[in-house]
Each structure stands twice: as structure tokens, then as C-alpha cells.
């Protein structure tokens, strides 16, 4: 799952790799973001970035250029994915590991070996964690205004739920200690640990001993829930909620550290209005040094594939000029706090979803559409480890896609088309089994929820709408159907032909206004604009659509399925030109139309009505 944090020049992409909410955040400059969710998440699969490695020539080289940074990341994660006792492999990745970039250079080889092994297992520096205080202080990054606030004494109590699978014991214990140290005693009713069937021995007896010892001082304070089989993040949260008895429940990962005063502002907001679901603001615990890195204040949203992303807070919030004011948020990215009974009334989480992914989007959309609200509080801060990688790599894209389609079908009305478009799959007979959604549809009816259009207009106005799209998919020329139109290297905006792989660089969208977008569907108005195919002095180019429109460039194309693609102004056609210097034997060109034909994978019904 990709949560994208944007500032002007830097982008941090958060990829949740598997199982639990392990958000891996990486810093890049701009464009790389768009690839991460689609390419990087498929690490165990042969992704083009990897496949290209051995074969450096022609167009391939240019793609490598484009994917270069990404490739480094992918390779690093491939190297650092868990090893099953293969010491040779350990040796090879030893010197390259990102673990030692900022930490441990002066350690002896044996310690480094142990540290690396733990890093590969946990995705963070478990070796260092074992050596840090369970009660360490962390910097107070709350905005100024938060520090002097007073709260009523009769706030509701909270149960804190930690869910985990194969987490380092010291990390779990530090999460618990920080919760106990930084939550006023009278407000913290209990802590609930949900073990989603870890197979790590440390989490059996040793954790049990810790629980026993804590409970000997405070009987029943820590409750333990163990799953006898792996249920995934979604059902783990619900298990924790079931075990909770305080009026408010906080659902968290077990690799966090609570900051001073985190609980009071949240409990006050929920006490004022029980239909508010509240997220703290997140800071980062660096996976290698365990230093706390301050993150800017953000709202939490999603793109059209329903991957989560960080958003700039809404204008209305900036206008308040009050950095301690609550930030309205379209959705949630991970951890949240909720009134225990309200959570049941609103329908918990969709337990028909698998493993993880999309459940926080579903919750956010559902709460808003059904009369509640979601907000992020700047005064409640929690630091969270963004892992370098997840212990068990598994291709989760299929689960995320399936879950996204459930959300689309139940909650998004006519806008469900956008989710299918973003995933580049047909809307009819997609061949994807999304399970039974009758219960969720009944819930929506029972709660008399508003439409998704209402939600987009009023709650998530930053989200781009694509109601004028009439066809989408990959674009192939009948002369050579194993090649697809591809956005090519991002640096020079020249579209190319490339072997069809169907990932986002080959997504094409054709609109009723005769524009052709190539590449990822830009999710929000704060993101880079879509790239439009433009005839620039007889050459095909990809230019930001809004710029091309403003400059009255030649960006309109006549296209019918199985026919030519002809620029409406220049009358030139997009065609293939035989070129033996080119790796694939053809190059893309604009020329006098010779009757070449193109097909795009998916047509929307609107297209046929326009054509006829
Ligand atoms: C904080 O509150 C106290 C008492 O309410 C007050 O005396 C003090 O001036 C306040 N400090 C700031 C920085 O506002
Ligand atoms: C915003 O608030 C700060 C103090 O909190 C003040 O100095 C500044 O003038 C305010 N800006 C505007 C535009 O109101
Ligand atoms: C800023 O927001 C906080 C939290 O809502 C509120 O308590 C405080 O009064 C606000 N400050 C100003 C100057 O409006
Ligand atoms: C393109 O399609 C037209 C009409 O179906 C057909 O007559 C023509 O031969 C096709 N051109 C090519 C190059 O396949």
C-alpha cells in the first residue's frame, strides 16, 4: 500500500508490503512515486526493472535510466528480503545493506552479521532495539499551541490494541511502555495484544512472562489474544476490538512510540462527538538508527487504486492559521481511535476483505457517507517504524485489488469505474472474485448513507474525477501487437513503443474531449498533472495536459476502436515506422496517415454512443 507524502520537491512513498500495516517510506524526487505502488509491490515477481538488467541496449537503456532509482530500491529490497538460513547470500548482501549506511560502521564482523540477520528478519534494526531503553525519551514534536492546552478531567477511558505478527519483542515492549508512560494512568484502562499467529519463539514464553509480570502489579491490565491461524490485519483489528472493554478503543501497530499528551486531545474530540474517528499525526522511527524523524502535518487520503496517501491539509485548515486545530481527513491510513460502540454501529471493518489493503479507505468513506467524520489531530503524535521491508514478502497486489473492488462496488456508485480504470481491468467480467458483498450493501442501506458523489464534492474535493474517460487500457498497433505505447523515460517526455507489460507506464486513457493520457492516472489536484499525447512540430510528445491546453497545443486525437489515431489539427497520424536500428524493429512516429490501426483494451459504453 502506497501512502505518498509530498512536499515541494521531495516525495516519500510509503509502501505497506504485507500482512500488517508495515509502512515502508522512501524518499525520492517527484516522479518515482508513481511507479512504486505498481512495480515495487511486485518485488517477488519478475518486474521489468529487474528483467532489464542483463540486456542494456537501445530503448532498454533509456528505460533503465527512467527506472534507475527505482531499480536500486527494488534490488535493495530483494537483497534484504528475508533469507531462509542461506549464509552465502548473507555474505553477499553484507556490505551492501542499507542497515549500515548510517549505523554500525564501527562494529565488529560478528556483531554486524547478527545485526544484519535480525534486520533481514524484522525489516528494522532489531539488534539496536534490543539495546535501547524501553523507556527512552523522544522529542516532543507537537505544535506550540498544543503544549499548554487544558482538558476536562472526566475524559473517557481508552483500551489500546496492538496487533502484530513476528515483531521483535523489544519493539513490542517499548510500544507498551511508551503507552503506559505517556497516557495518564486514569485514562488507560487496558492494553490488548493481538498476536496474528506469529511463529517467532520469542513471542511465546518471553512475551507471556512480560505480561504476567505487568499483570502481577496491575491485575488484568494486559490481555492477550492469539490467533491459531493467520487472519491478516483486518480481522486482527476486529479481534482486538472484541476484547476491549473501555468506551474508546485505539487500534495500533505494535511498532510505535507514543508522544507526550497524545491521548487527551483525541479523547476530548471523541467525547464531544462519538461519531468522530480520529487519527494521531505520525512521525517516523527510522528503521536503521531508531531516531525519530518529524513529519509534516497531513490529512490522509487515497488514489484511484485505493492505495492510501498522505495529503496536504485542506485549505479551510490553513485559513484557520492554527497548527493545533483538527485536520479534516477523507480517510485513514492505518492507526485510529474510535468510540467502541459507534465502531460496531457503523459496521466495524469489512471482514470480507482479505489480509490487508483498502480497509482504511473503506472505513473513511463509509464513516463520512453514513454521517460520521474523520480527522487527524496535530496535538496527538505517535512515532511509527517504517520498515525497510516486511519479514514475509508475498505478492499482495491481488488482495489489495480485490479489496479495492469491494469498496468500489459497495460505496462508489458510478465512480466505481474509476477504480477499474486505475487498475486497468475491465468493468464487466473482470474475472476477479470479490466475494459476497450483499451484507455490506445492506449495511449501506440500513445506515441510509449518502452518495459517493456527495463525498467527493464535500469531503474529498482534491480527488480528480475522470467522468469523461471513454476508453482505457494498453494501446497496440495491428502491425505489431506485442508492442504497446509506453510513456518512455520520464525525463524527456518522448513516448515510445515497448514490449507490452501493462503496468502504469503503459496505461492509456482516451476522453470524450479527444485527449489521450499516457501513464498513471493522476489522483489528486495536488499531484502532477496527467501527461497528454501532443503533436509538437510533427513529433509525438507527452506534455502536462493543463499546460498543453493553456498553450493551445495539438492535443486532440480522433480515434475509434480498431482505427487510426489522427490529430484533429495537424491531421497527422500516430503510426509505426520500420526502423532496424531500433531494438524492436519499429519506432513511433507522426506522419501522413497510411491507414494503420490501433486497439485499446477496454471501451466504456459511452464511447459507442458518441461514435454512433
Ligand atoms: C501556559 O498556561 C499557564 C497557565 O494556564 C500560563 O501561566 C502560561 O503563561 C501559559 N504559557 C504559554 C506559553 O502560553
Ligand atoms: C497566524 O498566527 C500567528 C501567531 O499564531 C501570527 O503571528 C500571524 O500573524 C497569523 N497570520 C495570519 C495570516 O493571521
Ligand atoms: C486552535 O485550535 C485549538 C484546537 O481546536 C483550539 O483549542 C484553540 O483555541 C485554537 N486557537 C486559536 C487561537 O483559535
Ligand atoms: C485498418 O482497418 C481497415 C478497416 O478495418 C482495413 O481496411 C485496413 O486494412 C487496416 N489496416 C491495416 C494496416 O491493418
Could you say what the CATH architecture of the largest domain is?
Answer: Alpha-Beta Complex
Ligands in the model, by name, code or SMILES, are: 2-acetamido-2-deoxy-beta-D-glucopyranose
CATH class of the largest domain: Alpha Beta
Q: What general form does the structure show?
A: globular
**What name goes with the CATH superfamily of the largest domain?**
Spore Coat Polysaccharide Biosynthesis Protein SpsA, Chain A
Q: Please indicate the percent range of residues in DSSP E strands (runs of 2 or more).
A: 15-25%
Determine the structural class based on helices, strands and strand pairing.
alpha+beta
| Low-pLDDT segments | 6-87
Count of individual beta strands: 27
Mean pLDDT: 85
How would you characterize the largest beta sheet?
Answer: 8 strands, antiparallel
Give me the CATH fold name of the largest domain. Answer: Spore Coat Polysaccharide Biosynthesis Protein SpsA, Chain A
Q: Roughly what percent helix?
A: 25-40%
Number of helices: 19
Family: Belongs to the glycosyltransferase 2 family. GalNAc-T subfamily.
Protein name: Polypeptide N-acetylgalactosaminyltransferase
Pathway: Protein modification; protein glycosylation
Enzyme class: transferase
Describe this structure in words.
It is globular, with a radius of gyration of 25 Å. About 13% of the residues have low confidence. The strands form seven sheets. Strands 16, 17, 18, 19, 20, 21, 22 and 27 form an eight-stranded antiparallel β-sheet that branches. α13 runs parallel beside α14 and α14 runs antiparallel to α15. 30% of the residues lie in helices and 25% in strands. It has four domains: 118 residues, no CATH class; 229 residues, Spore Coat Polysaccharide Biosynthesis Protein SpsA, Chain A (Alpha-Beta Complex), CATH 3.90.550; 62 residues, Orthogonal Bundle (Helicase, Ruva Protein, domain 3), CATH 1.10.8; 141 residues, Trefoil (Trefoil (Acidic Fibroblast Growth Factor, subunit A)). It has 612 residues and is α+β, with helices and mostly antiparallel strands. The structure holds 2-acetamido-2-deoxy-beta-D-glucopyranose (4 copies). The site of one 2-acetamido-2-deoxy-beta-D-glucopyranose has 4 residues, from loops. It is found in: Golgi apparatus membrane.
